[in-house]
Amino acid sequence: xLTIRAAGDWRQGQVHARRVDAPRRLVPEVETAIDAxxxxxxxxxxxxxxxxxxxxxxxxxxxxxxxDLELGQTDSKAFVGTNMAHPEFVDRFGPDVMAxxxxxxxxxxxxxxxxxxxxxxxxxxxxxxxxHPFAGSMDPxxxxxxxxxxxxxxxxxxxxxxxxxxxxxxxxxxDHRLRQSELIFYVxxxxxxxxxxxAVDDEEHHGTWFV
Length: 211
Description:
Blueprint: E1 2-10, E2 15-19, H1 28-42, E3 53-63, E4 66-75, H2 76-84, H3 89-93, E5 103-109, E6 116-120, E7 131-132, E8 136-137, H4 145-157, E9 164-175, E10 181-189, H5 193-199, E11 205-210
């Protein structure tokens, strides 16, 4: 289930991201739960974990012609312990205790008009084995959401900017399983379905799905 928080058709020049000092509010019960969830995840066999710094979703303001985003900073451990393990903390303590990493999920369309997605490895920490966009979270080093999408598609499919005919940010949604905000993109590739499938990096995906 998804909640659509905003819908539009914004190109790169219409999206403005500002970094702000807005860390999570610390609550002892939440911090204890984060430590426990991280330890539990580390104990699972063959699960790949790295407590890296990631970008945190703080707020947004949307009009038909402009999308303004305020972004902070969080880390993977806080994400595992709040959004992944305890999404109900939003209702108990409020959204400011959550990691809320900024997800970027492109709907990738091939040159011959197939939607192409990957099937995630069983060793991944979240959504293992699921069909999923070639997606990820914004890094602090990303210049903005569009840069994050370009980076993810380069890492997972070896796509360069020249391989993309069109890219637009089409909405912000909240996945009820994670209670985090996800930026949704439409991406038109100049590569065919078969060319995209042949380029998939197998570190994160063990197969593909298309329609």
